[in-house]
Amino acid sequence: MTSGSRARRAPRRDLVRAAVLEVLQAIAPELDTTRLDADRPLREQVDLDSIDWLNVLLRLRDRLQVPIPDSDYGRLTSLNAIVDYLGAPSRHRRSATGDKATGADPLATRIHRLPGNVEVAVRPARPEDLPQEAEFFRHLSAESRYKRFMAAIGELPEKKLRALASADASRQIALVATAREGADEIEVGIASYAVAPDARSCEMAIVLDDGWHHSGLAGVMMADLIDVARHAGLERMDGYVLASNQEMIRFARQLGFTTRHDPDDPRTVLIERSL
């Protein structure tokens, strides 16, 4: 590489380095970034579990608009490794969307490999999914249903289930995550949005099967939902979270959402982010 080409790459690398440090600081506010060893694995220096780490990479992918295939996550261990990878010209990275998708359609099925080598498929809900979705909601714990709907409910009305199966991303969409359980495909998560009357913003919601909490699934589903909303031309994503649900509030902040108390209801927090 010539000195001229190195000089041209320097601003990009500086931008990437600043972005990485900012994302790390947002997820680990107590971190002193000036004390990081750029060549030492970050997880030896920052108190991040596997799911926090996955959220770091998802947020960088979203912020810098750089594809990061699941298969490359294991290479991004140190600050310098991340900067080298994300700062390189796109031709030096694998041409992928971060996950395998069938074509360029944002509504195509995406296959994700989660920590622990667990594979899930994320795709739009379909009318034929109604029995499976009803079963999914029926088997959620009372606590999970309450956190999702902010009310004690047993089963979702059929009208609500049918609305989830809409595939018109300009009005509303539901993405379902499925995994193999023996010979069966089971539904393990639903992430959805409904477009606001201004046609510029949307309200999101996400719920996972209780056994899939802390699996990394919520992060990849939200990344997919944001991608679909962005392709639909939406400019902002909002959501309402119980103020007592600190885990969800922390997760939203990791994904770049700002948070503020709902002035109309002290029990809830409004989360917002630009698309």
Order of helices and strands: HHHEEEHHHEEEHEHEE
**Spatial separation of the terminal alpha carbons:** 36 Å
CATH fold-level name of the largest domain? Aminopeptidase
The structure class reads alpha+beta
Round the Cα radius of gyration to an integer and report it: 19 Å
What is the helix tally?
Answer: 8
Briefly say what this structure is.
By secondary structure, the chain is α+β, with helices and mostly antiparallel strands.
Description:
There is one protein chain. The protein is α+β, with helices and mostly antiparallel strands and 275 residues long. It has 2 domains: 1-98, ACP-like (Non-ribosomal Peptide Synthetase Peptidyl Carrier Protein, Chain A); 100-275, 3-Layer(aba) Sandwich (Aminopeptidase). Helix content is 35%, strand content 23%. A 9-stranded mixed β-sheet has the order 1-2-3-4-5-6-7-9-8, with helices on both faces. The two termini are 36 Å apart.
